[in-house]
């Protein structure tokens, strides 16, 4: 059985379509509501009474909310699905088939598209200074088919294995729990990069099933809010996984761009919760 885990925070615009895409799948669906202020929670309760809801009085963050649901899930595999994403026909079966036929694979990702049909990156180069530079360089080519196959393989040879965004991934429950799930010190952003690294370090392979297609709206967070969520996680990731010179280099660049006060605040937040 598959357990679908959805973390919702003010997701009224998309949560109905997300859950409707799971109709008939036979999956267990668990939804953690991170203190939503809109009508998304009542929408789920009224239209999808079969969904197991874990309503929170405060926003736990993406990593902690996923871990909460994963601890209560009964499936042998966990589909981590953003509230602003929905599966196209047959996607879940294809992801499950990939996991079942590849016992060495701990995580499998689908092919992502925007709602208008444009291709969307589901992968990125190995995180680090060089990887982030290459990621920015490849982003303008998101619509190109070669950027999702040939480029990914080439970059993996240059900077190391690619990782997959947790907008939608199917993870073997055994593997997820063996590595301790998401690191909850990442409130949002970089928790999926960190998870992929730890899965690979534990001997699991990561794979993609391009026949499985998932639509992901994305891009709903404002720039200033992204900085206050993204930068603490970025700094923490570099402290955990990158050499000292990279940590210092990234911090100095941030101080020049955002100022000492902002970076000092992000460093405090990024030390963990």
TrEMBL record:
It comes from the Bacteria. Residues 3-129, 147-216 form the Glycosyltransferase 2-like domain. This is Glycosyltransferase family 2 protein. The lineage of its organism: Bacteria, Pseudomonadati, Acidobacteriota, Thermoanaerobaculia, Thermoanaerobaculales.
């Amino acid at each position: 059985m598959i357990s679908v885990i959805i973390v919702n925070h003010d997701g009224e615009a998309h949560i109905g379509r997300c859950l409707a895409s799971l109709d008939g799948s036979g999956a267990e669906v668990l939804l953690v509501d991170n203190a939503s202020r809109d009508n998304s929670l009542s929408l789920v309760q009224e239209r999808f009474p079969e969904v197991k809801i874990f309503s929170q009085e405060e926003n736990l963050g993406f990593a902690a909310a996923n871990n909460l649901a994963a601890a209560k899930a009964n499936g042998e595999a966990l589909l981590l699905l953003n509230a602003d994403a929905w599966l196209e026909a047959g996607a879940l079966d294809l992801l499950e088939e990939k996991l079942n036929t590849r016992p060495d694979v701990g995580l499998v990702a689908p092919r992502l598209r925007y709602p208008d049909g444009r291709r969307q990156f589901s992968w990125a180069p190995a995180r680090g200074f060089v990887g982030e530079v290459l990621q920015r360089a490849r982003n303008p080519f998101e619509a190109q088919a070669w950027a999702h196959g040939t480029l990914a393989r080439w970059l993996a040879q240059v900077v190391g294995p690619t990782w997959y965004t947790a907008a939608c991934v199917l993870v073997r429950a055994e593997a997820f729990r063996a590595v301790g799930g998401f690191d909850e010190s990442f409130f949002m952003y970089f928790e999926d990069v960190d998870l992929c690294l730890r899965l690979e370090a534990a001997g699991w392979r990561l794979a993609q099933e391009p026949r499985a297609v998932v639509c992901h709206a994305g891009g709903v967070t404002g720039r200033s809010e992204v900085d206050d969520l993204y930068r603490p996680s970025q700094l923490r990731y570099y402290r955990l996984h990158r050499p000292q010179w990279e940590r210092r280099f990234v911090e100095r660049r941030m101080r020049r761009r955002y100022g000492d006060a902002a970076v000092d605040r992000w460093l405090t937040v990024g030390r963990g919760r």
